[in-house]
Structure formats: structure tokens, C-alpha cells
Write a structure and sequence with these properties.
- It is built from 11 helices and 10 strands.
- The chain has helices spanning about 10-20, 40-45, 55-60, 75-85, 105-115, 125-135, 165-170, 185, 220-230, 250-260, 270-275; strands spanning about 10, 25-30, 55, 95-100, 120-125, 160, 175-180, 205, 240-245, 265.
- The strands form 2 sheets. Strands 1-5-4-2-3 form a 5-stranded parallel sheet.
- Helix 5 (about 105-115) packs across helix 10.
Length: about 290
């Protein structure tokens, strides 16, 4: 990889070249399905990037649920660092996250590593589908365990907001909340995942899938920038807070913003699944105001 740090997206061809280098990156497969919890492991077993290690969203990238902290609560930074070290991530490891869902789950790992202070993490643009489309080989063999890495926490490269901070913002309007869920769920219609439908008052809707072209790759930076600016009125990224259903697909919007040069937006990790579980949480329905 010529010791260049990739920190947003990498193409299948770039990854294949990097794997042949003296310092190959570590590929981490984040494939998953919300409605079938073993589907990601099955997809990995059926064919993954050679040398890739599988990470399960519920086990490796989430903490225990309490009923009040959302569907995919963040683990502590310390617990996440132990997980990364155990699979061989060191302080200088270039990590490549990928999945079978357009980056929907890989972006969560990308964000979490940045949350741990690790800049050398990138998402494979187009995921395993792009890898296969490029004619690159997949493996069905389990990857041998690597020696544990000396992964140490550093200053976070990202910011988070808590439920109380997002709630206080409803009145202050200092920040604009962007909701990555489908428009019907944002409006409070067809809610099948969380017990209450609707959205955070004052939020705008930006479906994460709109970050991708028809081929499943991210749109060009200038197009992403124009689309986000159209929704936010051109507000600086530091004025923006991203959320979704459980703090996963919001990271896809954060990655797209980073690609677009919109750096410094925050994540509300608990997102709608935490918000809607709080007694008395303000809830809006219908289209964005």
C-alpha cells in the first residue's frame, strides 16, 4: 500500500494490489442481515476475500441491550479495543471493512475504529459484489487466527451526542439532525422494527442508500456534497448530527459526508431505537418540517 493511509473508500482493484504488497491490509467482513442473524456468517463461509476475518454486528460491534439503550448500543471503547486487538489489529494496521450490503455494516466498523482513534480504516467501495465483479478470487476457508495486535486507544477522530444532548437541541436548534432511515419510517409509517414510529422533531431525512449509484458504489464526491447541501441548506458538517434506527446506517451517511469533504459531523449512537424507548421522548410524524 506504499504506506499510504486510506481513510474513506478503496476500490476492489486497489485492495487487490495492496494485498500483494509487503504490508497487506487486514480485511474484515461485516456482512449481516437484520432479520436473519446468522446470514452474514453464512455469506462469509460461502465465499469471502482471502485472508478476511468475519465480525458479527451483534457480538463484535455492539454491547448488551437493556431495553432502553437501543438495538445496537455501542460497546465501551475499551471493550471494542480488546475485540480489535484479539483479531490482530495493531496501531499501524490498515483495515479494510466490507460487507454484502453496500457498506451498510462496514461503515459502522469504519466509524467505530475512528471512534477508537484509528485513522487507517477504509470501506471497500461496492463490497464483496465489486470484488467478485472485478474477477477477483474468493475463499471458502476460514482465516487462520493472527497474533493479537497491540491496539491501543487514541483520541477519538469522531464526536457523539447523547439522548439528552439531542433532546436539548430540539429547542436550541444549534445542530441539524439527519435521519438515515427510509422515508416511510421517518414519517412514522410502516414501522416494523421499533415499537414506536416517527422521528426526532426538527430532523431531516437522508436515506443512506441514496449515497450509492445503481452499481452499489458511492456516488462521486461532488454529487454527494450537492445532495447533502440541498438537505442541510449548506450548513457546515460540525452543525450536523446523524442518526438512524440503531446507530448503524447513520455511519453510512457519515462516510458519504467524509467522502464529500464534509468533515466533523456527529453521531447519535442510540438513534431512534433508543430515542423511542425513553419515557416522554418528543416524537414527530409526517414529512420533515
Amino acid at each position: 500500500m506504499n504506506h499510504m493511509t486510506y481513510d474513506t473508500l478503496i476500490s476492489a482493484e486497489q485492495l487487490a494490489d495492496a494485498q500483494r504488497s509487503a504490508h497487506p491490509p487486514l480485511a474484515l467482513d461485516c456482512s449481516f442481515e437484520l432479520t436473519k442473524l446468522d446470514a452474514g456468517q453464512q455469506a462469509y463461509d460461502a465465499g469471502h476475500i482471502p485472508g478476511a476475518v468475519y465480525l458479527h454486528l451483534e457480538h463484535a460491534l455492539s454491547a448488551e441491550k437493556t431495553g432502553r439503550n437501543g438495538r445496537h448500543p455501542l460497546p465501551t471503547r475499551e471493550a471494542f479495543a480488546r475485540t480489535m486487538a484479539a483479531i490482530g489489529v495493531a496501531g499501524d494496521t490498515q483495515v479494510v471493512a466490507y460487507d454484502n450490503a453496500g457498506g451498510m455494516y462496514a461503515a459502522r466498523l469504519w466509524w467505530m475504529l475512528r471512534w477508537a482513534g484509528h485513522r487507517a480504516v477504509v470501506v471497500l467501495d461496492g463490497g464483496i459484489a465489486a470484488w467478485k465483479a472485478a474477477g477477483l478470487a474468493v475463499s471458502t476457508e476460514a482465516t487462520s487466527a493472527r497474533a493479537p495486535g497491540n491496539f491501543a486507544l487514541r483520541e477519538p477522530l469522531v464526536t457523539t451526542l447523547s439522548y439528552d444532548q439531542v433532546k436539548a437541541n430540539i429547542d436550541s436548534r444549534r445542530k441539524l439532525v439527519l435521519d438515515a432511515r427510509a422515508p416511510d419510517r421517518f414519517r412514522g409509517e410502516n414501522e416494523t422494527i421499533d415499537p414506536v414510529g416517527g422521528h426526532i422533531p426538527g430532523a431531516k431525512n437522508r436515506l443512506f442508500k441514496d449515497n450509492l449509484d445503481a452499481d452499489g458504489r458511492f456516488k462521486p464526491a461532488h454529487q454527494l456534497r450537492a445532495e447533502f447541501d440541498a438537505i442541510t441548506g449548506g450548513r457546515p458538517a460540525t452543525d450536523l448530527v446523524n442518526q438512524c434506527g440503531s446507530g448503524v446506517t447513520a455511519c453510512h451517511n457519515l462516510l458519504a459526508m467524509e467522502v464529500a469533504g464534509l468533515k466533523g459531523a456527529a453521531l447519535y449512537p442510540g438513534s431512534w431505537s433508543e430515542w423511542s424507548a425513553q419515557p416522554g421522548a418528543p416524537i414527530a410524524t409526517g414529512p420533515a418540517a
